[in-house]
């Protein structure tokens, strides 16, 4: 079946649902690179009109990637909750936007229908939503997860300390961790991207972080962002693993290019659960995603990058993650060319993730070959803060000296706390108060100085 | 009105001896002090410029000629016509220009060496030659093809070169995306049995090769390890895990300045 619409007296015909989805997507570099973007603004408007008229149920019968060819499609179809979908089953994509923005769609209602929404439905409605719509609806979606702290409560914003070092030098890493803690960061996770993919190294870094967390009784969790099979080996080797990491994509072929299958994730999740290291919850997975990864792997099946991204959230959702992070500006300008495209993608990803029930954070970031700068990051982090983003990255001075890109700094998170009044996770907030690092009841003031335990460590270093 | 100064310094700034990370910046309220804001802007400007600086192929070729045991290099072009084309269309950077591809013959070497400008010609200009000086003597039993320099090139160009040469393995030396603190970081990508269109999961990467990052001797020993393992297992990529303990400065200790003093 083909789809048609008339805009400005011109009839536009779209051969497939895939084409409608791609051409309805707000313009971006990756879709142009893939050759799936609308060729003109009028063609895009026509595709959006067609898309708005499609029943949501279309996505249950017209798979964008065939069921028998893709494990992610099978996961989406096999885990769809028809009872949850019943509430919105009569809606078109356009009606769904109206419904989401309406006062009918309260937080409990949105929670109740979550498992009835497929990634494609979320992606479709996002394509016809303005930035403010994406913010408003995401704000209504509450997703709470827990390990040693409770992540995602309303009025809260968590941060990951990302203490990367180009040679994994333990003191260099510890220095960045201390900097982050003194700036009240780290309640989402202390998560290291190791400089090289090595089981022994990952195990060592896991021990390093576990020792710091235990020594100072910090209500947070650690993660080494290495391949899932490495983490599994770390666990088998007795390392104190809190969270299992994996980069994931929205097609089976993308995940194959990352070198894992869904059963690898299940095996690693079971292994991490068996360690029983959480105190207030047992969400043990940390996933990262980003628009463009499927195309980058030649595994997008003609789909637009935003739809592929939303499909990755089905993978994430299946493994009850503590955190999901869309690394929005990392992949480069061939996918998101400039600050404007990065901002739009960040808001879409956060919205789709939250609508599907994920603890969605965002690596608000850019590379030095993209046409973006700190002002674009200020814009996106502020908009995401307003939208209730679960967590953002925290890195000293916004500069990742290992991965060579810029993300949000510890200072940035404190700016958001002050302008939006958002506190860290409650367990961590209490710890900060006890340590005298930050008082979130008094304008997020940092009294200055260094807590006793840390001060002793510094004192031993004095020349 | 006088009172407290607006700028609060961080007493842990002394930890900068351990890292180039921008720690201990101090704060005004909770915001970045002006001096740090300006330092960041300056670093960003340098990194932006590094992306667009062209590789000096002539100088690089001359320097490569000085490495004992290496045949003379050849310079080829990718299908990306300029930097803008390169940034917007990565697949073009992964293939050789057709007429340039014709200059490679199937010599079936053990190892193809591909030197690609990538996103930082500075990285290649500074670090490719000293790395090769460190690694070539360790591979004296390996038949290494003449180095192929490719401009406007991505990692995947190594697959194209390797396939044309019918090499058993390919090693790509490429300028990584420049960072604020490291505009000259060299990446090494190793692939066993290179062929056009292979997936990234079949590659092994050694990152951040530069004097202030992973030094040349350690990068060379990691490279040789990968080559020997790949030879033994007849594969590369995710299945070839780096279990060797090359990371000298970590030793076996996880003790840091934060650890309690040893009893």
Describe the structure.
- The complex is a heterodimer of chains A (463) and B (263).
- Chain A has 463 residues and is α/β, with parallel strands linked by helices.
- Chain A folds into 2 domains: 3-140, lyase (Annexin V, domain 1), CATH 1.10.220.70; 145-435, Alpha-Beta Barrel (TIM Barrel), CATH 3.20.20.70.
- Chain A has 22 helices and 14 strands.
- Chain A has helices at residues 17-23, 29-34, 41-53, 58-61, 71-78, 82-85, 93-101, 107-113, 119-127, 131-140, 170-182, 199-215, 228-236, 252-257, 262-275, 293-296, 305-317, 339-355, 374-387, 410-420, 426-435, 452-461, and strands at 3-7, 10-14, 145-146, 150-151, 158-161, 189-192, 222-224, 244-247, 285-289, 323-327, 360-363, 391-394, 399-400, 405-406.
- In chain A, the strands form 5 sheets. Chain A has a 4-stranded parallel β-sheet. Chain A has a 4-stranded parallel β-sheet with strand order 8-9-10-11.
- In chain A, helix 9 (119-127) crosses helix 18 and helix 12 (199-215) packs across helix 13.
- With 263 residues, chain B is α/β, with parallel strands linked by helices.
- Chain B has 2 domains: 23-52, no CATH class; 54-239, Rossmann fold (3-Layer(aba) Sandwich).
- Helices cover 32% and strands 15% of the residues of chain B.
- Chain B contains 8 helices and 8 strands.
- In chain B, helix 6 (121-135) links the parallel strand 4 (111-116) and strand 5 (148-151).
- The longest helix of chain B is centred in the N-terminal third of the chain and has 19 residues, at 34-52.
- The chains are: A alpha/beta (463), B alpha/beta (263).
- The interface between A and B is large, with 83 and 73 residues.
Keywords, please?
heterodimer; A: 463 residues; alpha/beta; Annexin V, domain 1; TIM Barrel; 2 domains; 22 helices; B: 263 residues
Q: Radius of gyration of chain B in whole Å, from Cα?
A: 22 Å
Oligomer: heterodimer
Tell me the overall shape of chain B.
globular
Strand order of the largest sheet of chain A: 7-6-5-12
**Count of DSSP helices of chain A?**
22
Q: At the fourth CATH level, what is the homologous superfamily of the largest domain in chain B?
A: Ethanolamine ammonia-lyase light chain (EutC)
Largest sheet of chain A: 4 strands, parallel
* Mean of pLDDT of chain A: 96
Enzyme class (chain B): lyase
Function (chain B): Catalyzes the deamination of various vicinal amino-alcohols to oxo compounds. Allows this organism to utilize ethanolamine as the sole source of nitrogen and carbon in the presence of external vitamin B12.
Family (chain B): Belongs to the EutC family.
Pfam families (chain B): EutC
């Amino acid at each position: 079946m083909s789809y048609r619409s008339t805009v400005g007296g011109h009839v536009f015909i779209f051969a497939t649902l895939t084409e409608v989805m791609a051409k309805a997507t707000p313009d971006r570099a990756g879709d142009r690179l893939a050759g799936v973007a609308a060729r003109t603004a009028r063609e895009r408007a026509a595709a959006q009109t067609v898309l708005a008229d499609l029943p949501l149920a279309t996505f249950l019968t017209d798979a964008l990637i065939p069921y028998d060819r893709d494990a992610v499609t099978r996961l989406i179809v096999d885990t769809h909750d028809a009872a949850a979908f019943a509430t919105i089953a009569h809606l078109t994509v356009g009606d769904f936007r109206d419904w989401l923005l309406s006062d009918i769609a309260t937080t409990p209602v949105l929670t109740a229908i979550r498992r009835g929404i497929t990634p494609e439905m979320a992606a479709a409605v996002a394509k016809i939503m303005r930035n403010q719509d994406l913010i408003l609806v995401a704000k209504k979606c509450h997703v709470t997860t827990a390990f040693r702290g409770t992540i995602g409560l309303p009025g809260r914003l968590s941060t990951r300390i990302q203490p990367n070092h180009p040679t994994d030098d333990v003191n260099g890493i510890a220095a960045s961790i201390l900097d982050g803690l003194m700036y009240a960061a780290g309640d989402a996770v202390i998560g290291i991207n190791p400089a090289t993919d090595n089981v022994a190294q990952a195990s060592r870094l896991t021990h390093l972080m576990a020792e710091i967390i235990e020594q100072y009784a910090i209500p947070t969790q650690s993660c080494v962002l290495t391949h899932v099979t490495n983490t599994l080996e770390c666990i088998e080797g007795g390392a104190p693993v809190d969270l299992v990491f994996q980069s994931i994509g929205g097609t089976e072929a993308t995940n194959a290019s990352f070198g894992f299958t869904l059963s690898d994730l299940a095996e690693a999740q079971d292994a991490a659960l068996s360690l029983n290291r959480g105190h207030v919850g047992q969400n043990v997975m940390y996933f990262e995603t980003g628009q463009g990864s499927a195309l980058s792997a030649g595994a997008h099946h003609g789909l637009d990058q935003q739809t592929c991204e939303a499909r990755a959230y089905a993978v994430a959702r299946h493994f009850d993650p503590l955190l999901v992070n869309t690394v929005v500006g990392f992949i480069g300008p061939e996918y998101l060319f400039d600050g404007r495209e990065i901002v739009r993608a960040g808001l879409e990803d956060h919205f789709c993730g939250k609508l599907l029930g994920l603890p969605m954070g965002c690596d608000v970031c850019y590379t030095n070959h993209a046409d973006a700068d700190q002002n674009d990051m200020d814009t996106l982090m502020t908009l995401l803060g307003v939208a209730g983003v679960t967590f953002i990255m925290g890195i000293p001075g916004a500069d990742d000296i290992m991965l060579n890109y810029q993300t949000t700094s510890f200072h940035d998170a404190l700016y958001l706390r002050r302008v939006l009044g958002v506190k860290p996770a409650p367990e961590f907030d209490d710890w900060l108060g006890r340590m005298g690092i930050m008082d979130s009841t008094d304008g997020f003031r940092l009294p200055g100085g260094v807590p006793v335990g840390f001060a002793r460590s510094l004192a031993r270093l004095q020349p | 009105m006088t009172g407290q100064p607006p700028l609060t310094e961080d007493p842990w700034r002394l930890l900068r001896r351990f890292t180039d990370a921008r720690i201990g910046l101090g704060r005004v309220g909770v915001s970045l002090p002006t001096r740090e804001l300006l330092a960041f802007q300056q670093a960003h400007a340098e990194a932006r410029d590094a992306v667009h600086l062209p590789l000096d192929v002539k100088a690089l070729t001359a320097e490569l000629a000085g490495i004992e045991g290496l045949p003379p290099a050849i310079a080829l072009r990718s299908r990306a016509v300029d930097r803008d084309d390169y940034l917007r269309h990565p697949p073009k950077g992964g293939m050789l220009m057709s007429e340039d591809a014709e200059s490679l013959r199937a010599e079936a070497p053990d190892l193809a060496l591909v030197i690609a400008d990538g996103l930082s010609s500075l990285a290649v200009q500074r670090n490719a030659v000293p790395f090769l000086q460190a690694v070539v003597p360790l591979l004296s039993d390996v038949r290494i093809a003449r180095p192929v320099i490719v401009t406007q090139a991505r990692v995947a160009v190594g697959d194209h070169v390797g396939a044309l040469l019918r090499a058993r393995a390919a090693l790509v030396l490429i300028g990584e995306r420049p960072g604020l603190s490291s505009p000259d970081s060299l990446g090494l990508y190793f692939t066993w049995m290179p062929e056009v269109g292979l997936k990234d999961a079949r590659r092994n990467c050694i990152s951040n090769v530069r004097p202030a990052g992973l030094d040349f001797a350690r990068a060379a020993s990691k490279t040789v390890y990968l080559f020997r393992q790949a030879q033994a297992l007849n594969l590369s990529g995710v299945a070839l895990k780096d279990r060797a303990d090359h990371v000298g400065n970590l030793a076996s200790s996880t003790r840091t300045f934060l650890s309690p003093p040893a009893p």
